[in-house]
Amino acid sequence: MSKPKPFPSITGSCACNTIRYRLLTSPLFCHACHCGDCQKYTGSAFGLFLNIETYNLSVISPTKPVVVIQEKKPGVKGRFLACPKCKTELWGNNVLGAAVCDLRVGTLDFPSLMEPDLHTFVESKVDWVRLPEGAKSTPKGYDYREVWPKSSLKRLEVAVARVAQATKEKQEKLATLLAKQRQENTSESDEVNVEETGGEGEKTPTAVEFEDNDVEDDEAFEKRFKETEKALQSRLEKLSLKLEEEELARKTGELAVGTA
Predict the structure, then answer these.
(1) If I label 79, which of 4, 94, 103, 173 is the partner at 20 to 30 A Cα–Cα?
(2) Cα(first)–Cα(last) distance of the chain, in Å?
(3) Model-level pTM greater than 0.85?
């Protein structure tokens, strides 16, 4: 029995070639979108995208893409990976979530390799575009569960499960860090209290002279507690964002460079 042939090297880049990437396997699906939004976003007649598991997209350049969050329509934000130099949008995770990348086929070195499996929103395509004979199309959008090959749907299940597991591990890690930060914050507060009392423990009102404004009442304590919690939450949000970016970088090939 002959061994299956390895997937050919299909590479792509941004406009200035600062970002280089490689597809590690065949796409799940490829489609052309003729909707009005894609026409405006691309400045062309239609958008052309392929779907592939995030971990099957490897960044092979020293420079990594950066995360860009844009509000392209009022109230609708999109998250994309783009070149930090020329700003070319390479792919996003806005259709099927973190498990799957929606890659811009035009960024491939040889985009003609990816003929669309389906043309969508053909009711709004420009008049002079003629679809190839026999090309599959739909007037509007489509349900991937109805048009994707069974093999692609199975791959999608695996990808979603892997992302769910990674998300669970990330949440557990954040919970551990939160507990540690709170413990450290409590320890710091205890140390401050000991220093303020000179290490002599709690004193009675008759042991020292004081004025009313020297005593922290319940309201002041609550205010200080909330400020501490707010600062802690801010640090955790920054940490969460950093972990998310590192995880995204890992999935888009940062850790796969050595094996690419």
Answers:
(1) 173
(2) 27
(3) no
The pLDDT tens digits of the residues spanning 102-140 come to 999 999 999 999 999 999 999 999 999 999 999 999 999
* Calculated CA dihedral for residues 189, 193, 194, 198, nearest 10 degrees: 150
- Using H for helix, E for strand and C for coil, what is the string for 174-201? HHHHHHHHHHHHHHHHHHHHHHHCCCCC
Helix axes 218-249, 150-196, angle to 10 degrees: 150
DSSP state of 137: B
- Tell me how crowded residue 163 is: count the other CB atoms within 10 A of its CB: 20
In order of start, what are the domains of the chain with their CATH numbers?
1-197+224-260 (2.170.150.70)
Token pair belonging to 1: 């029995």
